[in-house]
Amino acid sequence: MNEYVILSFHAVIILYGVLLMTPIGEAIGSILVNKWPSTSTKRGRMLAGLMFVCTGGFTVSAHTLWMHNKLSEGGSVCSGSSILNCDGLIGNPDYNTVPFIGQPWGLLGMVAFCVLLWIVVVIAKEPLAFSTPTFLKAGLGATIAGLPVIGLLVSYEIKEGLICPFCTTAHIANIIAMVAFFVLFKMYESDEWAPELKKTRK
User: Fold this and answer.
1) Which domains are assigned to the chain?
2) 8 A C-beta contact, residue 67 and residue 31
3) Across 65-69, 89-93, 100-104, 146-150, least confident range
């Protein structure tokens, strides 16, 4: 199967999550509301959308780890004469591991998105818990911490004159997650987070 067809599966998961978090999400949420009642609210749709984004980030990171392992065996997974070339970056021993740790970037991405997904699930399960703002700040902080990593990896791409589409998809997922956590934190500080409580107080 063509590698870009495979990439589209990861991208669709992330795109679906993004759509859930936009005004279009209200229409999508109406389809899901019977199974997931929380999607009837903006908060619920934002959290559900963020879950999809983190899941897509995890799966594409896992794919880059598979690529790393395949390339270390001498195979080829995403080569080409164009600027879009995964082999030239993931297969480069100078760029394919995390400095000081020595582990593949894909593994770091898997761990990061898994932690982010866990944070979102915890918030979704108990959105009115005392610890919710702490988890929101943790998610926002973790995604902001990912920006220097993205900057480093992009610098590798610029240096080599290549773009790794799978890596770029993971970077985009992190940025989307960062924006989502920021929006959720702003929602928490407003009446939008728990409109049901506002109604009961009147």
Assistant:
1) 3-201 (1.20.1440)
2) no
3) 89-93
